[in-house]
Amino acid sequence: MSGLNKFLSSCKGAYDTVQHFLKTLGVPHPHREIFRVHPYITSNPQLRAQTQAQVTASLAHIKNSITRHGLEHIALSYNGGKDCLLMLVLVMAALHELYSKTVSIPHDYTLDSIFINSEELFPELLDFIKSSNEHYNANPIVIRSNLKQGFERYFNEINHSAKCIIVGVRSSDPYSSGLATEQYTDPDWPRFIRIHPILDWNYAQVWEFLIGCNLDYCSLYDEGYTSLGGTSNTIRNPFLKIEGTEDRYSPAYMLQDDADARERAGRLKK
Ligand code: FAD
Ligand code: MG
Description:
The protein is built from eight helices and six strands; from the N terminus they run αααβαβαβαβββαα. By secondary structure, the protein is an alpha/beta fold. Strands 3-2-1-4-6-5 form a six-stranded mixed beta sheet, sandwiched between helices.
């Protein structure tokens, strides 16, 4: 199979996964060991319905952005975290919807998945970035730099036709409550359009989607990490510590009370 055909087949897979999620009412029982020890409790049809509505809205937004800006001008920022994994799957499902009927996709097209790396990272996260890019047939671009300079290099040296980057930021992230679904970068950043398709998702909805779709995610989340940064500033979330144990934590999806505020409790100030 050619590179493009492999990619399109991954888009079809993502589309089928998302459609299944949209049509079903509850979480199936994923076969991973962790769910036997820590069952994912959601007999919560309201959460499922809210998450389905988020999926529908995000898909419409992504399709609209791709149609307006042009597929070849768009890339993803992908750091292997739960939010951009959700975003990657939605982008691929949207691509399938847009391109399964018409064939106007260049034969050498690749979806750039940009990871800008400036910190010492957990090996599990590095492994997941690699394996998930392979699984979804995205084109990994790794730039060793800080975020701003990294994107400058991407636009100036790596992809001259790119104009927009899709970002998995959510409104509850620091300094993100005022973001629009699409906007230019701030004046002190290289100038390009940011697309924010999952801005309104909350923590519980992200996990409802990842688990409801039975997606593979970075294994650190099963060890009690809820927000992944570098090794020097990331610890497991204290709110997930299992009482009466010295060093045992529940998985990230068990964080339920006040989850959006507590999600970053394992991220230390730099
Ligand atoms: P996360 O929740 O892990 O990140 C949120 C999302 O940012 C991820 O889902 C992913 O899509 C992306 N991302 C984060 N880290 C990386 C990385 N190392 N490599 C690739 N993608 C990553 N801040 C401003 O103040 N003004 C701006 O104009 C601005 N423009 C940005 C444009 C882009 C394309 C990106 C990725 C970030 C930009 N930021 C900007 C910074 C942004 O607001 C967050 O501070 C930053 O994404 C880190 O997010 P987080 O710590 O919340 O981590
Ligand atoms: Mg995040």
